Amino acid sequence: MNDKPKSKLRWRLLRWALIGLVALITFAALLVTEENWRTKRAWENFKRAAEAHGGHFDMASIIPPTVPDDQNFFCAPIVAETLKDSGGADSDPSGPQAYRLDLKIYRGDSESWPKNGGNWQKGELTDLVQWQRYFRNFAGTPEGKTNGFPVPAQPQTPAADTLLALSIFNPPLEELRQASLRPYARIPFDYGNDFGAAGELLPGLANMKRCAQFLQLRTIAELQDNQNTPALADIELLLRLNNCLREQPFLISHLVRIAMMAITLQPVYEGLAGHHWSDAQLAELELALSQQDYLADYEFAMRGELATAIDTCEKQRITGQIKYADEKGNVVTNSYGWAPAAFFYGSELAFVQMHQQFIVPIIDLTNRVASPAALRKGQAAIESEKKHYHYYKILALMSLSGVGPSVMKFARIQSELDLARVACALERYQLAHGNYPETLETLAPQFIAQVPHDLINGQPLHYRRTYDGKFILYSVGWDEKDDGGKVFLTAKGSVDQKKGDWVWQYPAP
Fold first, then answer.
1. Tens digit of pLDDT for each residue in 199-208?
2. DSSP state of 66
3. CA separation for the pair 502, 509 (Å, rounded)
4. Per-residue pLDDT tens for 257-301?
5. Cβ(185)–Cβ(66) under 8 Å?
6. The whole model's pTM is what?
7. Helices vs strands, H then E, count in the chain
8. Could you give the C-alpha distances from 248 to 7, 79, 177, 340, 507, in angstroms and in order?
């Protein structure tokens, strides 16, 4: 008889426990629903306010428009073929792959490749003797070629031998030159694939960079062979190829552009150091360089990264899946179906807010200043956020940690372009007066419309004439200190990008 009351009690307790559990689940569901609604509303209100002031965060705002194939650089056969197949390092240049954009100059055993080229940042000119030896390696083969390149029976000058070896690429090069004159450049692929689309770009970007390396060598050989007009034409081709990537909304595209521009500046430097060009040619070169604006490109690239991140996050909310590449390049899919919509709405809002807080202030386009201090402040804030951040900020913090430091690359290449433009004006002044001016102010407006300032601090660039009748021109660089025009090297002998000044000076005779 005593068991019945106990059984009833247990049943009542179980029933109340179930009622409590249902109530708790219902309450939790209400909380999640309310949080989903709140974060969605906050995100949509933020977007409306931003769009009212011209701000857009969707992919459509950054994807280049569709253009006619016959006016599109990337639809020209020589370029389109490259996008389909990247080829191999030991490809035969006489085969079908010669009809390609990459124009590879490295073939055969890598041990025989030239190791030391010029480096204008260290004031070093290119020694073509090493290239002459490379092209003539194994010259006694029955085919009369070495690594697929033609060589003369007897050595000529290093420049002449280099130009002969590269002449195998003359037909595709001229076709590429014509393709570069097309008014538009839009890579025809799925931009809606977010960061996966950026990965699809990599083979084509690698070939564009190899093409720049080829043109650099060819241009330097033309300069050393006193073919100054073709050399200038090839530099202008390099600049047009660089611009063909300008509208791509992914950061990786612009980092490759920066590498290509650094490659381009070597023949610009050697042409100026050797006084190869006339006043009219120098004016033409300065004008072409002035049309590059990597500070504005940084802003566009960052908008592209932001829009891509938001679009990716929105797709993850809809599909409940997150895809990423592992260390081996394999695509891994994780299910996030359990994650409430609030996580994705909150993450999208965090992307924009943290972008505006930490990324936007680094570049001041109005005053044309890049602030290392603003980058350091942003990096410190990001590290602080990582210690006690809200879970809505997880994705944004992961993204921003790798994006922000790229600003130095944009700032440096733009600073180097500014130095090159001023150097063109200095050479024009020297042609007119027989020497360099005492101050840079003398150059404007006759030899340059306006002398650019040091974009690190907004102050005038540093300039002085040297005892040997040359000059030294420099920016204070990323450390924001005037080191008197000193270039610092790393332990491996490369230029330290973060220390010392960013310098343009010609080597001693």
1. 677 888 888 9
2. P
3. 22
4. 999 999 999 999 999 999 999 999 999 999 999 999 999 999 999
5. no
6. 0.87
7. 14, 11
8. 73, 16, 21, 33, 37
Alpha-carbon span 348 to 246, nearest angstrom? 26
For residue 413, the model assigns a pLDDT of 97
Tokens of 76: 């020209």
- How would DSSP label each residue in 442-494? GGTTTT-SSPPB-TTTSSBPEEEE-TTS-EEEEE-TTTT---SSPEEE-TTSS
- What gap in Å lies between CA 80 and CA 99, rounded to an integer? 10
The answer to whether 224 touches 250, Cβ cutoff 8 Å, is no
CA separation for the pair 208, 307 (Å, rounded): 25
Give just the sign of the alpha carbon dihedral 101, 106, 107, 110: negative
* Bond preceding residue 445 cis, omega within 30 of 0: yes
List of residues 6+ apart from 113 with CB closer than 8 A: 106, 134
Average pLDDT, the chain: 85
Residues in contact with 258: Cβ distance below 8 Å, sequence separation at least 6, in sequence order:
294, 409, 410, 413
CB-based contacts of 179, cutoff 8 Å, min separation 6: 73, 76, 78, 79
How many Cα atoms within 13 Å fall on the side-chain side of residue 16?
A: 5
Q: What angle is formed at CA 367 by the lines to CA 306 and CA 501, rounded to 5 degrees?
A: 90
The whole-angstrom separation of Cα 123 and Cα 269 is: 9
Annotate 287-329 with three-state secondary structure. HHHHCCCHHHHHHHHHHHHHHHHHHHHHHHHHHCEEEEECCCC
- Both tokens assigned to 132: 């002459």
Q: Which pair of tokens denotes residue 128?
A: 């073509």
At 344, the pLDDT band (50, 70, 90 cuts) reads: confident
Q: Give the span between the Cα atoms of 317 and 196, in whole angstroms.
A: 17
Q: Which two tokens stand for residue 68?
A: 């006619």
At residue 482, the 3 state secondary structure works out as coil
**Which residue is associated with the tokens 């034409």?**
233
Nearest to 456 by CA among 491, 501, 509: 501
- Please provide the size of the chain in residues: 509
pLDDT of residue 94: 41
Token code pair at residue 116: 């030391």
